[in-house]
Amino acid sequence: MYSGAQISLYPMADDFVGIILGSIRALDRYRDTLRIETDDLSTLLVGPPEQLFPAMRDLFVAAARSGRHCVLSACVSRGCPGEPDDPRCAPSTDIGAEGPLDVRIVAAQEVVNAAPATGITVAAQFSHYPLSHGQYMDEIYGVIDFLKSSGVFDRPKNFCTRLAGDAGPVFATLEQAFLRFGAPPEGHVTLDVTVSANSPSRR
Amino acid sequence: MYSGAQISLYPMADDFVGIILGSIRALDRYRDTLRIETDDLSTLLVGPPEQLFPAMRDLFVAAARSGRHCVLSACVSRGCPGEPDDPRCAPSTDIGAEGPLDVRIVAAQEVVNAAPATGITVAAQFSHYPLSHGQYMDEIYGVIDFLKSSGVFDRPKNFCTRLAGDAGPVFATLEQAFLRFGAPPEGHVTLDVTVSANSPSRR
């Protein structure tokens, strides 16, 4: 299995380099478990699927604490058949991707309910792509049922779903959608994620 | 059929609002054919699939001419079974999504070769998701063969492919990957796209 993300942090500020360099230190605690590589377009995270969203949350919360309008954009993937197997990516626990949809929805809700608050309010939208699942729209509708009960559901949009709330439960909701839905543990799922803080625009 | 995109423009500048408002005028010429709606996270474009990339190119080129580091992030979709049929989205011509892969690759190359230059150099990366195609990895490998002959191929990355060059052929390459590959004309294809200009970072 291979799992990881291409993530980009966009501070809308003249000092975007300073904000990025300051907040990227929040990834230091993950460097033992995640491979982290940066170029001019994105930072690659490779490692266990359950580590990806905590790392993204900590990075984004650090950037948002600058008070500037910041956006995190991420392409998150597990099980892509075009990527090599990597022992680094083995989940440390059962990610919960098997079993009936209603059981997975309840388990996902419990994780979100237990997510600690960060004090940073965010808006997010994401698309969920279950690539290797024959009944992929059933899985997408299952994700939507979970989202509606997550406590951070805001509204459906074309091509994606909008979330709003504290970064803690919002990132936990994204994580649970990624881990538990769309494919069995070795199947192929990707997410296209946008998270925003401190926007001056009307919702 | 339904086709469209959720697009976001990120100018890394204190005057991000001014740059966005200035460049969004580039979309005015598309308002007759595209439905355009903005909230705090993204701008929705809905309309014929062959109109989406010219609109994104013109918006991004206008923003990049500010000289500031700017990024366009887009989730582009056609044929999503969860969206309603919309006559506005009917392609004005055959989008070329049928026929053998090698024929589609040659046709896509011809469009890219004819794309006018804009004078704006960009780097881009994107993921291609053929959601409703049983042999979806064959389609992805077909897209990769096309990209390698596009003249703007830079290198493969994990989970995506990197392009570099003038915004004209780069957006034409993204468009051809979207229109011709991944699904028959009514099938479901999405792209997760990032385009960057004026970055101070090392590639």
Any descriptors?
alpha+beta, about 200 residues, eight-stranded antiparallel sheet, homodimer, Alpha-Beta Plaits
What do you see in this structure?
The structure is a homodimer of 203-residue chains. By secondary structure, chain A is of the alpha+beta class. Chain A has 5 helices and 8 strands; from the N terminus they run βαββαβαβαββαβ. Chain A has an 8-stranded antiparallel β-sheet. In chain A, α2 (49-64) packs antiparallel against α5 (167-180). The radius of gyration of chain A is 16 Å and the shape is globular. The mean pLDDT of chain A is 94. Chains A, B: InterPro entries: HMP/thiamine-bd, MTH1187/YkoF-like, Thiamin/HMP-bd_put_YkoF.
| Major pleated sheet of chain A | 8 strands, antiparallel
Measured as a percent range, the helix fraction of chain A is 25-40%
The mean pLDDT of chain A is 94
Number of helices of chain A: 5
Strands of the biggest beta sheet of chain A: in what spatial order? Answer: 2-3-1-4-8-5-7-6
| SSE pattern of chain A | EHEEHEHEHEEHE
- Uncertain segments of chain A are none
Question: What is the CATH architecture descriptor of chain A?
Answer: 2-Layer Sandwich
Number of DSSP strands of chain A?
A: 8
Q: What is the CATH top level name of chain A? A: Alpha Beta
Could you tell me how far the N terminus lies from the C terminus of chain A, measured between alpha carbons in angstroms?
A: 39 Å
Radius of gyration of chain A: 16 Å
Strand content of chain A: 25-35%
Structural class, judged by helices and strands of chain A?
alpha+beta
CATH topology of chain A: Alpha-Beta Plaits
**What is the molecular shape of chain A?**
globular
Kindly give the count of domains of chain A. Answer: 1
